[in-house]
Structures are given as structure tokens and as C-alpha cells.
Design the sequence.
């Protein structure tokens, strides 16, 4: 296509892709990177025995990928506002490959395995988790406001399936292949997926035009003619600053800490929870973990469209109530496996719905800095995945076996505070009227 600028100079430019293709590419990239959530969870018991770890150390091991995966969401999501999503996606996925390669090498050379080295390599694998906020921003720029809930629900919900699927599959593969070959197979999946993403990923029209040296304002006008509605500030630091000055942004951080941080934490924690508390085998523990993780992910897909219909604030209120009920059931009755599973169903529903609802609200309250806002919310919110497992482990160290279900009082407290938060946020946005 040809463009005539204000000086009469003719420029040639090319636009590729559709919003649906952009959504598919981002979802594939996130699914690949997010598999690192299950990095140590399904095999934590093996590492615990191999290195003679206590419950707190095991909790740190399953949580460490969450630390880098959370904090790096902030700068890399904001980076999308400057260069689009494809480049930061690839940087994160390649770094995760390096970390997984290191773990695979160590497992084939067990005399070299050490706790600190596993923490370091797990931190590198956590780069893959940071793809979430990159994809949120990448997807948002493809879709208009009235489709944000649906698009982000599909993106995040399907991408979120990765840890549940791995938690389900790994315990069945492990007895046949062994720990080292299982991780090698995982590495091959990550490597192949990165190549697939690099081929199919596409940035929104605005970013394509800017990369072809079309001036920003002209790029905006052309992209608007192609139905793109949302545009970045163009500066990483400015995007972070704009979103950081918005109170609603920080309220959403806390709501996301509860649900998505909780989702990450429990996806990593549940394999140990069920094996240690109820003495079930790895395979059944994987099934129970998948019930939670896959259930929450599928609810998130549905929750995006549901949030579009009733507003994100109302959907979040329903979700936090469900998290509170699930937490209370496990805290009070979780010593019984049936009641613990009932509690998991409530938690999966609430966390999946709230994860979708929060990002329905993000473009509404920070429309001029979606990348920066997605970075703060996705990054600091996901820190729950790092913070919560060691706390749960510490409660077990103090309380003994009963600490596995008594520790869910942490979620009871957080969800009560979450109810206060969403009610205040709803008052500010007047969405409950």
C-alpha cells in the first residue's frame, strides 16, 4: 500500500495479520512460556528427597520461577508500548530456554546438583512466565474496548492451561523416562514452541507501521482506519509513570495478587499438598492439581465475556466471594479430601473469574498506558506466586501435617481484604449502579 505524506512524498508500507491472528500468536507464546509455572511443582518431592529440603526450602524452590516471572512483567510489558510484543516475547522465551537447558544438564550430571544452582536456573526459567503481561498488552492493541474482556479472557485462559496440563502429564511421564529425560522433553517443547511463536506472531498495525519508519501520528491515523482503537504513549518509562499515578491501578494489583498470585502459588503447591497431606501418589496429585489449574483457566476464558456483559467490577466481586468460600472450606474442613476438593472448585472458579475481570478493568482505568498498567498489575500481582508458597511451607514447619490445610487461612485473610478493595474500586468507578 502507498501513503502520501504532508510533503507529497510517496511511501510504501505493508500491513499483515488480523486481530484473530494476533490473538492466536500471543496465546501460543504465553502457553509456551507459562509452562515454566510447573517447573518444580510436580517433582518437588523428588528434589526435596534428593537435597534433603525442609518444607520452607521446598516452597522456595517451587516459588522461585514466580519471582523473576513476576518482576520482569513490569519492564517487559511496558516495553510493548515502545516496540510491540514480538521482541520482548522472544527475549523472555530464549532466556527460559537457557534456564531449562541448565537444569537438564544438571539432572544428567547429578553430582553437580545443588540447591542454590537450582534456584538460579529456576529463576531463569521464570522469564517465560513474564510473557503474560507482554501478551496482555500485545492482545489489547489488536482489539477495541468492547471486545477487551473476550479477547483477554481467551488469551489468558487458554495460555493458563499450560501449568495444569504439565502438572497432569509430568507425573505419568516421570516413572517411565525419569527426572532427567522428562526435563529434556520439556526443553524440546519450549524450544519448538519458541520457533513456532517467532513464525506466527504479529504486532498490531500501529507497531508494524512504526517499524517501517512511518511517523507515529501518521501510523495512528492509518491504524485507526483499520479499526485499531488503543495506542501507546510510545515511551516505556512514561507508560509506567502514567499507570503508577493511577490509584485504580494499585487496587487492581492487589486484586490480581489474590487471584493470579494465588493461582500460581497453588498450581505449584497442590502436588506437594496432596502427596504429603493425603499420601496419594504423584499421578493422582497431578490429577487434583489439574482439576484446579485447568478449571481456573477455562473459567477465565468464559469470564472474559461474562465481564463484558456485567462489567469487570461486578464479576470481580462475585469472584472474590467464591475465593473466600473456598478458602474457608479448606481451612476448616480441609483435613478431609472430599471437602478439600470442594474448596478447590470454589477457588478455581473465583480465581479464574477474577483473573479475567481484572484485565477487563485495566484498559478502562488506564487507557493511555495499557502496557505499563499490565506490567504493574501482572508483575506485582503475580508476586503472590512467589510469596505464598514459602509462607504455606513455613506454616507446615510450625504446625505439622495439619498446617497443609490450616495454611489456607492466608487466603481467607486476603479475600476479606479483597472484598473491601473491590467494593471501594466499584464505588470509584460507579460500576455497581
Sequence:
Amino acid at each position: 500500500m502507498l501513503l502520501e505524506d504532508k510533503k507529497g512524498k510517496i511511501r510504501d508500507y505493508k500491513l499483515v495479520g488480523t486481530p484473530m491472528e494476533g490473538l492466536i500468536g500471543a496465546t501460543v507464546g504465553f502457553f509456551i512460556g507459562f509452562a515454566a509455572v510447573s517447573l518444580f511443582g510436580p517433582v518437588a518431592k523428588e528434589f526435596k528427597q534428593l537435597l534433603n529440603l525442609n518444607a520452607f526450602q521446598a516452597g522456595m524452590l517451587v516459588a522461585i520461577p514466580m519471582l523473576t516471572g513476576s518482576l520482569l512483567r513490569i519492564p517487559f510489558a511496558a516495553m510493548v508500548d515502545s516496540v510491540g510484543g514480538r521482541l520482548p516475547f522472544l527475549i523472555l522465551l530464549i532466556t527460559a530456554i537457557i534456564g531449562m537447558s541448565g537444569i537438564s544438564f544438571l539432572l544428567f550430571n547429578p553430582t553437580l546438583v545443588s540447591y542454590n544452582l537450582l534456584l538460579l536456573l529456576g529463576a531463569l526459567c521464570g522469564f517465560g512466565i513474564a510473557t503474560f503481561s507482554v501478551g496482555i498488552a500485545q492482545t489489547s492493541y489488536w482489539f477495541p474496548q468492547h471486545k477487551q474482556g473476550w479477547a483477554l479472557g481467551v488469551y489468558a485462559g487458554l495460555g493458563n492451561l499450560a501449568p495444569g496440563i504439565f502438572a497432569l502429564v509430568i507425573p505419568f511421564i516421570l516413572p517411565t523416562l525419569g527426572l532427567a529425560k522428562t526435563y529434556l522433553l520439556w526443553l524440546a517443547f519450549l524450544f519448538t514452541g519458541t520457533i513456532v511463536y517467532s513464525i506466527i506472531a504479529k504486532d498490531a498495525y500501529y507497531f508494524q507501521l512504526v517499524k517501517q519508519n512511518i511517523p507515529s501520528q501518521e501510523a495512528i491515523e492509518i491504524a485507526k482506519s483499520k479499526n485499531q482503537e488503543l495506542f501507546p504513549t510510545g515511551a516505556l518509562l512514561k507508560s509506567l509513570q502514567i499507570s503508577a499515578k493511577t490509584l485504580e491501578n494499585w487496587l487492581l494489583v492487589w486484586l490480581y495478587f489474590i487471584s493470579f498470585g494465588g493461582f500460581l502459588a497453588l498450581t505449584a503447591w497442590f502436588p506437594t499438598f496432596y502427596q504429603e497431606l493425603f499420601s496419594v501418589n504423584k499421578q493422582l496429585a497431578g490429577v487434583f492439581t489439574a482439576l484446579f489449574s485447568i478449571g481456573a483457566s477455562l473459567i477465565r476464558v468464559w469470564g472474559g465475556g461474562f465481564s463484558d456483559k456485567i462489567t469487570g467490577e461486578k464479576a470481580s466481586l462475585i469472584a472474590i466471594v467464591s475465593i473466600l468460600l473456598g478458602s474457608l472450606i479448606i481451612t476448616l474442613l480441609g483435613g478431609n479430601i472430599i471437602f478439600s476438593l470442594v474448596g478447590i472448585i470454589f477457588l478455581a472458579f473465583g480465581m479464574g473469574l477474577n483473573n479475567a475481570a481484572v484485565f477487563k478493568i485495566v484498559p478502562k482505568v488506564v487507557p493511555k498506558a495499557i502496557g505499563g498498567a499490565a506490567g504493574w498489575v501482572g508483575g506485582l500481582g503475580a508476586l503472590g506466586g512467589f510469596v505464598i508458597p514459602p509462607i504455606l511451607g513455613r506454616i507446615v514447619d510450625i504446625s505439622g501435617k495439619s498446617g497443609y490445610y490450616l495454611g489456607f487461612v492466608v487466603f481467607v485473610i486476603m479475600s476479606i481484604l479483597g472484598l473491601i478493595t473491590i467494593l471501594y474500586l466499584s464505588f470509584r468507578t460507579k460500576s455497581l449502579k
Q: What stands out?
A: The chain has one domain: 15-429.
